[in-house]
Design goal:
alpha+beta, 3 domains
Length: 325
């Protein structure tokens, strides 16, 4: 049995004034009742989330800033709150929460991650993108094909009109899109626009210049590598369509090497050292130095640590496929 405290918003109240009726209900929690139908579930008042897709498209750091609540039905007996039911959309008491020691509030204030003025600006831009999409579909007669065989034509025209409107596509704007199909496909467009191939094409990397790479290897280790850039080519690698072949000289090497990148990658201009204590616990005791990793292998939170460290040094990545803007 797992016991935890959770915040629940009461959407309906059930009052029993008869002890026998209350006891019978308590013994029949797995029975379907019309008054429990389509109740329960989870929700958030976070203005960044207007569908579950908005949450799914957040990175792990963003997800940790979202406050979720349950919806529940409060069950009373003779005016006393006895327990809360979360039916999760079913007609029976799928989950039951005990209320002993719980705090009851009439209202709950939710602290938003976006200021009201900024939210209104994002909504205005989202409205413009919805109008742009509708006009393209109508002008090019793409009502049945814009999401599939004519996606490339739609995408190119959308990017042109978005540029004319002086709008850069971002996750924050897409979150305010109200049309589900458009929201889904703009997330698709965002991934393509900010994918590794397009970032390299616009990254202005120069042959002979020094760069620092940060990535997680196929074995799960976090790698910080100093290189001298030679060239790159957009390519397919294994099952990955959106990949890049990077040709370079590692630090203290004379020959050219190459590596394929298709996932999370940070590139900083210049050679930079990452202090040991950014990703590790470093302890010195009685002449012994102990170094242990703060994270498990493949933990993407290491990218956040690296980005935060270099930001304090005034260094921003020129390529960032981990957390796109």
């Amino acid at each position: 049995m797992i016991i935890s405290n959770e915040d629940v918003k009461i959407t309906k109240e059930i009052h029993f004034n008869n002890a026998d009726a209350y006891e019978n209900f308590g013994n029949m929690l797995m029975t379907n009742f019309d008054f429990l139908k389509e109740t329960g579930g989870s929700f958030t008042e976070d203005k960044r989330i207007n569908s579950y897709l908005d949450y799914d498209m957040m990175d792990e750091l963003e997800k940790r800033t979202v406050k979720w609540f349950r919806k529940g039905v409060a069950v009373y007996s003779d005016g006393k709150l006895m327990f809360v039911v979360d039916a999760q959309g079913y007609s029976y008491a799928r989950y039951v929460g005990l209320v002993e020691g719980c705090e009851i509030k009439k209202t709950v204030e939710h602290r938003q991650a976006i200021k009201e003025d900024d939210l209104n600006k994002l909504i205005t831009k989202a409205d413009i993108l919805e109008n742009i999409s509708s006009s393209i579909i109508e002008e090019l007669d793409l009502s049945k094909t814009w999401k599939n065989e004519c996606w490339k034509a739609y995408k190119n025209e959308f990017k042109k009109k978005m540029q004319l409107a002086n709008i850069s596509l971002s996750k924050s704007i897409i979150q305010q899109i109200e049309i589900p199909e458009l929201k889904q496909n703009l997330y698709k467009l965002l991934v393509e626009v900010e994918g590794i191939q397009e970032q390299f094409e616009h990254g202005d990397l120069k042959k002979g210049e020094k760069y620092t790479l940060c990535y997680i290897s196929d074995l799960g280790s976090f790698i910080t590598q100093q290189i001298t850039f030679d060239s790159f080519a957009s390519t397919k690698y294994a099952q990955y369509e959106n990949a890049v072949k990077l040709v370079f000289k590692p630090q203290n090497k004379r020959k050219l090497y190459y590596n394929y990148f298709y996932s999370d990658l940070l590139i900083f201009k210049g050679w930079h050292e990452l202090p040991e204590n950014v990703l590790n616990n470093v302890k010195e005791s009685k002449g012994f130095l102990t170094i242990s990793s703060k994270y498990h292998s493949c933990d993407k939170q290491q990218f956040d640590e690296v980005l935060n460290y270099f930001k304090t040094e005034g260094i921003e990545p020129i390529i960032n496929t981990y957390r796109t803007n």
